[in-house]
Design brief:
mainly alpha; 2 domains
Length: 84
């Protein structure tokens, strides 16, 4: 079952690519390209990568906040005060 669904998706993607070759530079090419990306899962992969990058950035910010909190507790001076 999974194999036949995957085969159908690949067949649609290849068919769409052939159609794209015939409408180079037009708006229909963009529509077909979007359809192919959606059918092949490229859209989901892009969204996943975007979320992954957002999580990495969030983790980085949290690590910086935690480090600042550790510095504050060890020195008794908050980083915002700058030692004043």
């Amino acid at each position: 079952m999974k194999h036949s669904i995957r085969l159908i998706i690949y067949a649609l993607a290849i068919s769409a690519m052939v159609l794209v070759a015939g409408c180079e530079g037009s708006e229909s090419k963009k529509a077909i390209t979007d359809t192919v990306e959606t059918l092949s899962g490229a859209d989901a992969v892009k969204k996943g990568e975007k979320i992954k990058n957002q999580l990495k950035e969030f983790e980085k910010q949290e690590a910086q906040r935690a480090q600042a909190g550790l510095e504050e507790t060890s020195t008794g001076v908050s980083p915002e005060q700058g030692g004043q």
